[in-house]
Amino acid sequence: MDITYIREKIKLLRRTKGITQKEMGSRLYMDERSYAKIERGEKKSIDILLLTSIADKLNVDLETLLGKENTAAATQAANTTTTTTGNTDIHSLIEAHQALREEIQQLKDEIKTMISSHQEALRILRHSE
To answer: Which CATH number do you get for residue 8?
Structure first.
């Protein structure tokens, strides 16, 4: 996976959408200088969670952010089993992203259940007084 390409793609998408580096940094809960370092390549690596957040803030899917082509043929090729490292890396990142989304949804569901249980316990305690 070419990190330089990804940085350029992020920069291009951000500019295309009319978002400043300051706005993007704010959306990612970081200051403008920290975000600018990502685009300039001063931050040597970008973890999957940050890439996922960037894609989300730019309203694109992770594959669009990481893929080198946006043609229908490229999409079809990405969906077929390939042996190239680039596509394998992209598929791995997409799968990791989906797994994280599922885990987050499970946590949200568990939190809702806990809140409901606590609310019910409080209701019972209030009525028992």
So the answer is: 1.10.260.40
CB 10 within 8 A of CB 21: no
Among candidate residues 13, 21, 111, the one with its CA nearest the CA of residue 62: 13
Structurally, how many domains does the chain consist of? Answer: 1
pTM: 0.52
Residue-range definition of the domain harbouring residue 90 = 3-128
Q: pLDDT (tens digit, 0 to 9) for every residue of the chain, 129 residues total?
A: 578 888 999 999 999 999 999 999 999 999 999 999 999 988 878 888 899 999 999 999 888 888 755 434 333 433 443 344 455 667 777 777 777 777 788 888 888 888 989 999 898 989 887
